[in-house]
Amino acid sequence: MTALCRSLILPMNKVLAVRALSTSAVCCKTQAGKYKRTKNQSKPLTYEQFNAPYQIHHRKSWNTWNTSNLFEADDEIRASQTAVEDFFIRKFMFGTWHRIFVSDVIIKRRHNLIIIAGIVTQSLQASKLYFLIGYTEEMLSYIFKCPVKIELQSVADKKDVVFKYI
User: Fold this and answer.
1) pLDDT digits (tens, 9 = 90+) for 95-143
2) Contacts 24+ apart (CB under 8 A), 117-126
3) Contact in structure between 56 and 62 (CB atoms under 8 Å)
4) Which residue from 29, 112, 117, 160 could staple onto 106, CB 3.0 to 4.6 Å apart?
5) Chain centroid to CA 19: how far?
6) Which residues 6+ apart lie within 8 Å of 159 measured at CB?
7) Taking the CB of residue 104, how many other CB atoms lie within 10 A of it?
């Protein structure tokens, strides 16, 4: 070791007290919910994916409509129940309608009615599509003990819902 290195090593019983001011540039960038651009603009985005999270209330509507923030007599535990139910509905729809939905699942709650909306491809036969609609409505109605309605729109190809390439 050199003499300089030996002089910097402190004995274990001495405590080095140093006060320093650390400064850094302010980082006000928000990254959540934004998609990274590609060099050749080959990544397709739907309209909902194109809008940044801070533009939701200006350009588009929310993916879940409910009234869980209103006053309820049962200690207002409905907000957490609604979030868990919405998570379950999205997972159920992803598993049941695997690779058929080309948009996000939109959940609307009106009083005691749950309405699930979305865009699907026309890759299924009509009889299978009607079976899936009935099966989903019946299963979710039984699980949540309230009527469930499914509203679907169909497109010929997944490329029809592309809003912009980034």
Assistant:
1) 999 989 998 898 988 888 999 999 999 988 999 999 999 999 999 999 9
2) 117/150, 117/151, 117/152, 118/93, 118/152, 118/153, 119/152, 119/153, 119/154, 119/155, 119/161, 120/152, 120/153, 120/154, 120/155, 121/154, 121/155, 121/156, 121/157, 121/158, 122/154, 122/155, 122/156, 124/100
3) yes
4) 117
5) 44
6) 44
7) 14
35 exposure class (CB count in 10 Å sphere: 0-12, 13-18, 19+): exposed
Residues 6+ apart with CB under 8 A from 123: 100
**Tokens 């300089």 map to which residue?**
4
Vertex 91, ends 163 and 125: CA angle to 5°?
Answer: 65
Is the model's pLDDT at 13 over the cut of 70? no
Of the listed ranges 59-63, 78-82, 144-148, the least confidently predicted one is: 59-63
Residue 65, beta-bridge partner list: 108
State residue 134's pLDDT score: 96
What is the reported pTM? 0.69
Mean pLDDT of 52-80: 65
